[in-house]
Each structure stands twice: as C-alpha cells, then as structure tokens.
Amino acid sequence: MPRRRKLPDYVSLKIPTYEPADNPLELIFDGRSLEIAYKVLEHIKEHGRLYPDDYKEMFKDKSDQVLYFRVIKKMLALKMLRISSDKSYILSDGFSNRMETIAKLWKFQIGDLKDLW
Which residues does residue 89 pair with via DSSP β-bridges, in sequence order? Predict the structure, then answer.
C-alpha cells in the first residue's frame, strides 16, 4: 500500500512592499521553481488536467523533476490544485478562498466591519 503524501504544514509567502506582484505565483515561488510552476499551470489550463506521469514528458532533467514534486506539494498545500477522482491534478479556487479569509480577518482586526456582514 503506498504511503500517504505529506504536505508541508506551512508555506511562506513573499509579499512585496513597494510594488504589487504581477502574478500570485511570484509570491510563493522564485527562480527555477517559478518557471516550473508556470509550466504546470499552463499545462493544466491547456489540457484541463495534469496526470501523475506527465511530468516525465514535461521535464527531462532530473533536477527539474525533483523541483516539480516540490512545486506540486506547495500548490496542493495552498489549495491551488486538487486531486480529482482519476488521481489527476486540476485547478482549484481554494487558494483564493484562503486569501479572502485572510483579508476578512485583517478587516475584522482593524475594526472595518461594514464590509464583512
């Protein structure tokens, strides 16, 4: 029986202070892992899903394959992706729900309750 995938307990977000980010992926990934995250996102948008063995065709280099699994784990932990019934990865809106919850918590913290109810 395969071992259950362990997702990270937390993921660091880099929030720019002077200029807003162009893409939410830039808040989470950087360098080569950002390029891999873009490739994963474009593949899913083009084909509708990403099957577990598709990474072998997308990334020939062994180091890119290792980064691919790290990127997938982060995206699953942040609810950017979810696993469908056929064990493929599909896009999810859970990340936007989490960010909306954080925004509501901040509004509650500063006392701006008119927008919350």
Answer: 50, 83
